[in-house]
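Treating backbone geometry as a discrete language has practical consequences that deserve illustration. The amino acid sequence and the backbone structure tokens for this protein are reproduced below.
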Amino acid sequence: MIPHALRRILLPTVALLAVGAGVAYAAGEGAARSAILDGYAAQAKAEAPSFAGFSADRGRALYLGPHAGGKGDANACAACHTPNPAATGRHAKTGRAIEPMAVSANPRRFTDRAEVEKRFDRDCPNVLGRACTAAEKGDFITYLAGQ
């Protein structure tokens, strides 16, 4: 058993360390997401020299749709992910739960470059009927990082 005087010092210290670790972890996720966005910004600038930055408004429009050219009822990301990106989605064919797209509800979202590319490579043709541009990818992540 821990003496009362030691508990008064130890418990707040442990709590502060846990909060500090959480903040550091979140900062790492933010840095990983920023690095991905930096890569898309460089690509977007190479694709279109007039590129002036990402837009959460364009990202919102991309997320909510509707779009022509996609497959079946998947004419928007929101078709499976729900119009509220902080909500859990549901895969249209399998019924499998999909973690929220909003970074506020899923802080690890858009932090693994390979996973982000894999999803865009699969989902853009299904929703848009074509590959997403670097600017669209950055707009999409910018929108969802603010949700």
